Amino acid sequence: MDSLKIVDEKLTECPANSEDAGRSSVCEGCPGQTLCRMQGGADPDQEIIDVRMGAIKHKVLILSGKGGVGKSTVAYLLSLALARCQSSKVGVVDLDICGPSIPKLFNVENQPIVQSPYGWKPLVSPNEDVKVMSVGSMLDSDTTSVIFRGPRKTGLIKRFLKDTFWGKLDFLICDTPPGTSDEHMAIVKLLKNVKPDGAILVTTPQEVAVATIKKEISFCRKMGVAVLGLVENMSGLVCPCCKETSEVFPGRGVVSLAESHNIPILGSLPMDPKVTECCENGRNPLENYPESPTVQGIMEISSRLIGLVNNG
Fold this sequence. Notes:
Blueprint: H1 33-38, H2 46-54, E1 56-64, H3 71-84, E2 90-94, H4 102-105, E3 114-116, E4 119-121, E5 123-124, E6 131-133, H5 150-162, E7 169-175, H6 182-190, E8 198-203, H7 207-223, E9 227-238, E10 245-246, H8 253-261, E11 265-271, H9 273-280, H10 285-288, H11 293-311
Parallel strand pairs: 1-7, 1-8, 2-6, 2-7, 8-9, 9-11
Antiparallel strand pairs: 3-4, 5-6, 9-10
């Protein structure tokens, strides 16, 4: 039997967002090398993107290190809370190209996107009149899979910014997929000239979720994106009878992470079955259950976010 050897090869950081894209020695053998070389120089679409995005006061990214932490639900609740605070005009762009859930949350499923003289018209949710754009609204059915390679994902994200008539907004919430991949690099690069306010990192209390958030923090710092704060989702379970909140995932992982990286905790959101039911059925939990600890938590988070971006 042959002896086994430990693989000592280290992964080298991809230079896709640098001047060495497609030209570095690490690019040799990469299937995207030719594409990266072609993307050098000024993007002819950047000017119109800057104009579209310049009409929006605040651009905020929602990130998570892994799936299943409720990132899209947090994006949904946050957009409703922002719209209710100070009557803000809010839009949500769904960058989770392969797993879009935003149309269902906002109750705009099975509604077509219309081409107007000014561009694609985003769908308007009956919940707080939030404007929504998602690939989920472009599919034949909710069972249609999206099988896109990186360049096509990037191209679609560009169209969400360039070809969508967002108009004047106070906030544009960018709901990204888990991790740090094509979608994340694309949105950061496309927004570079209009300077997004930063990113909110969503995690749950478990150590496995908190550990992956460290990669998101590293990504933000390498890409020059400010980390606005952490949101601890699923911090407890709200009893549907007495409204007492019980701890589900013990530990101080989120607090320790915030302290070690000097990042503020914007707030915690317990799981409330009544709020979950609203989200599953496209109803507005802010209207139906304003007394819920989850709703009160998201309202506090939105107030803190408004303070951060206005004072930043």
